[in-house]
Amino acid sequence: MSTAQASKATPAICNEGCGEQFEVKGFDTASLPGAIEKTFFTCPHCQHEYIAFYTDPEVRQLQDKIRRIQSQLQNPQANQAVILKKIKQTQAAIKAGMDRVRAAVEGGAGG
């Protein structure tokens, strides 16, 4: 398990565990079978785990793609409307992929 990304602390309440308030300061990742990665945070009081999302190689590839597309927004000569449309399409594909992986992991369903 490793810290995947540092971010600003976000206030949270452990509404599925102890009910205590805490700050989410980042997310952890864990590798699961099938090259799936789970991204989550844990209540520091009761250790209840809150899963943010799951990814597989296909979803991670789409995440890399969206980062490349977003970097194109820095170019003042780029067609912003076309780039924003590509971003929206890729975001939809990422969401669908994450939903698919979550259903496979949590529901035991296949592809």
Q: Helicity, in percent? A: 25-40%
Average per-residue pLDDT, rounded, comes to 91
Oligomer: single chain
Outline the low-pLDDT stretches: 1-6
What does this structure look like?
It is built from two helices and four strands, in the order ββββαα. 39% of the residues lie in helices and 34% in strands. A four-stranded antiparallel β-sheet has the order 1-2-3-4. The protein is an alpha+beta fold and 111 residues long. The radius of gyration is 17 Å and the shape is globular. A hairpin with a 3-residue loop joins β2 and β3 (36-42). The longest helix has 28 residues, at 80-107. Residues 1-6 have low confidence and may be disordered.
Considering the chains and any ligands shown, give keywords for the structure.
four-stranded antiparallel sheet; alpha+beta; globular; 4 strands; 39% helix; 111 residues; disordered N terminus; single chain; 2 helices
In short:
The chain has 111 residues and is an alpha+beta fold. It is built from two helices and four strands, in the order ββββαα.
SSE inventory with pairings:
Elements: E1 2-13, E2 21-32, E3 36-42, E4 49-55, H1 57-71, H2 80-107
Antiparallel strand pairs: 1-2, 2-3, 3-4
